[in-house]
Amino acid sequence: MKQVNGEKLLASLGDGVKDIRGRITPDAPMDRVTWFHAGGLAELMFQPHDEDDLISFLKLLPQEVPLTVVGVGSNILVRDGGIPGVVLRLSAKGFGSVELAGANRIRAGAICPDKYVAAMAMDNGIGGFHFYYGIPGSIGGAARMNAGANGAETRERVIEVNAVDRKGNRHVLSNADMGYDYRLSSAPADLIFTSVLFEGYPEDRAKIRADMDAVRNHRETVQPIREKTGGSTFKNPPGHSAWTLIDEAGCRGLVIGGAQMSSLHCNFMINNGQATGYDLEYLGEQVRREVFERSGIKLEWEIKRLGVFMPGREVRPFQGVTTD
Q1: Catalytic residue among 91, 185, 232, 262
Q2: Which of 19, 144, 211, 259 could staple 130 via S-S, CB 3.0–4.6 A?
Q3: Angle of helix 205-222 versus helix 114-123 axis, rounded to 10
Q4: Known catalytic residue: 107?
């Protein structure tokens, strides 16, 4: 694991950090905050107390210092060399609320778990959110990547997204501003989402409960939810299911080091206990290679890979016949 110098970075921010109310941790182990339980150190981790505290910190942070935003750690793979600069991890106290915001509307903080929004909607007879019950992760990430499941997507429910930029300025983005497409948005990458306003429609609570139960039962039956996994590893190519392509390429259960493609659902990569970030990323790239050689289709990562490689432990991305 690369030893970064978080204390030096913290000192460079000056005396203004004394007024910051959130938690600042130099050399923070990322394997403790990601669902893969692997990877190196964050040079500096900041957990703001609330939005005002976040803005105060951003105004102290030089623009040249890298800033990486993570949610609950469900959809990220951290490389073993760690993450340079500041890792921003929003706190549940300041960014985890979920509340009604008018007729059939729900506002949720960016770190609020997706399933809490589904539960709030069910309790109040608001339809259109049952699919969130089966998505691991938080609302900020769901809004950023247009998370979806069971034929539904986040973009169908978003009214507006509140955000803060690197300079500490507040922004409100409409659904159109988000520029949604399959598993992505075109919102500026430097915007930090703080909350999302959703709108559903009236629906019978018993119907919503039945839909949520179906989502839960399906997930428990076909996904390795009790393993150390980040969720779906690859996006579904147009007209195909990623898991089918992986299975047909003979990669179900494939193992490299401590990393494995799940035998239960082969588009889920799991840490069998001692996997490194290198093991996980190498396995993913090997699967991409095998799938391309079998089908001619190049899978795209859905898991986000963050940070830098350990020297001598770099993973070369599979290029296929085109560039990534």
Answers
A1: 232
A2: 211
A3: 150
A4: no
Active site residue 43: no
Q: Is residue 196 within 8 Å of residue 108, measured between CB atoms?
A: yes
CATH class for the domain made up of 6-93: alpha beta
**Tokens 């399906």 appear where?**
218
Tokens of 146: 């247009």
What residue segments make up the domains of the chain, in order of their start?
6-93, 96-207, 226-306
Strands of the 192-199 sheet, one edge to the other: 98-100, 105-109, 192-199, 158-164, 170-174
Provide CB contacts within 8 A for 19, sequence distance 6+: 56
State the catalytic residue, choosing from 183, 209, 216, 294. Answer: 183
Compute, in degrees rounded to 10, the torsion defined by CA atoms 296, 297, 300, 301: -80
Q: pLDDT tens track of the chain, all 324 residues?
A: 444 689 999 999 999 999 999 999 999 999 999 999 999 999 999 999 999 999 999 999 999 999 999 999 999 999 999 999 999 999 999 999 999 999 999 999 999 999 999 999 999 999 999 999 999 899 999 999 999 988 899 999 999 999 999 999 999 999 999 999 999 999 999 999 999 999 999 999 999 999 999 999 999 999 999 999 999 999 999 999 999 999 999 999 999 999 999 999 999 999 998 999 999 999 999 999 999 999 999 999 999 999 999 999 999 999 886 444
SS3 breakdown of the chain: % helix, strand, coil, rounded to 5?
30, 25, 40
- Active-site residue among 51, 160, 281, 302? 302
Active site residue 302: yes
- For domain 226-306, the CATH class is alpha beta
Rounded to two decimals, the pTM is: 0.92
**In contact, 313 and 294? CB cutoff 8 Å:** no
